[in-house]
Amino acid sequence: MAEDFLPYGRQSIDQEDIEAVTDVLRGDWLTTGPAVSRFEADLAEHTGGTPAVAVTSGTAALHVAYAAAGVGPGDEVVVTPMTFVATAATAVLQGATVVFADVDAATANLAPDAAKAATSSRTKVIAAVDYAGHPAELGELAEVARSADALLLEDAAHSIGGTWCGHAVGALADLTTFSFFPTKNLTTGEGGAVATGSEDLLARARGFRNHGLVRDRSAQRFPDEGGWHQEVHEFGLNYRLPDVLCALGSSQLRRLAAFKERRARIHARYNEGFADLAGVRTPIQHEQADPMWHLYPLRVLEGRRRALFDHLRAIGIGVQVNYIPVYWHPVFADLGYQRGMCPNAEQFYAEELSLPLFPELTDAQVDRVIDEVRGFFGANSSA
């Protein structure tokens, strides 16, 4: 990477983060130790008290959540197409049929009316994504889920620390999943978590992330086998997040409020810089939302997104596009999904361009991005 290349996202690591990790490395537990339960407790402080299960990635969190929900062959999962492929792929891996429902044209979040139209007697889960960090319309989506006798899953990979109608992300859906990849709002290197207020779903999530092992003698079928005995009653996988990474996560959580405040200021600076610029559209924010802005999704109009992308990349500004509609991936096309099924999502994709956004981005760097975008359109800077 060139020295002056400006990425669209990156981690923010300080000395306290480094010391938290080295303290674990000097101790007795590298995995399955006390730092895991501490991180899960720390997470609950940011999810309205909702218990959390730490796992190895955001993708693992989705897989664990679907498994905990009992998703399997014969079930349908309603999914937004404006997300990373994992939101849908992990449901397919559980044997479910994915039904894509269109998004709100302004926020790119799952539209409640589209989700309702996509439900059937086979719907097991409705999976919404908090696109760019702006929470989905969780109240209406919860009603849709209840009317379909389904669970609501909130893919909050972008939004930990945000709120909807004054309630913390993580406290509103039946299951909420998080990602702690380096470009996300906090990082454990790789990592994720599942939050749920249901004791049953929580127990199933904990079991699935640890091979489905049953060590509680009162729950075993053959408890008198010996003190070493453990059983597997349902299949699971090793999705355990080690203590080393959990310690980093706990340290990062102490700065989550500061990360949120800085991201909001960068977001507002972009909004101001593009307010009068013809040819683009800035993100909207519903009054019920207090987002944790993960992305700045600029809408580039009149078919000029590709040209602006190439221009900014050529001068060292690492913009990105998030995301192609999931069903455009060949793996879904090969299953029979066709382009054109979610027109709002496809229009949003055609215009979306993610500008650099991370806490250590300076005002001067933000202004550089603004100036280059405005220059591309032949406009003088107003930043």
TrEMBL record:
It comes from the Bacteria. GO terms for biological process: antibiotic biosynthetic process; polysaccharide biosynthetic process. The modification N6-(pyridoxal phosphate)lysine is found at residue 184. Its cofactor is pyridoxal 5'-phosphate. The active site is at residue 184. It holds the Pfam family DegT_DnrJ_EryC1. GO terms for molecular function: pyridoxal phosphate binding; transaminase activity. The keyword DNA-binding does not apply. Keywords: Antibiotic biosynthesis, Pyridoxal phosphate. Coiled coil: none annotated. Belongs to the DegT/DnrJ/EryC1 family. This is UDP-4-amino-4,6-dideoxy-N-acetyl-beta-L-altrosamine transaminase. It comes from Amycolatopsis marina. The lineage of its organism: Bacteria, Bacillati, Actinomycetota, Actinomycetes, Pseudonocardiales.
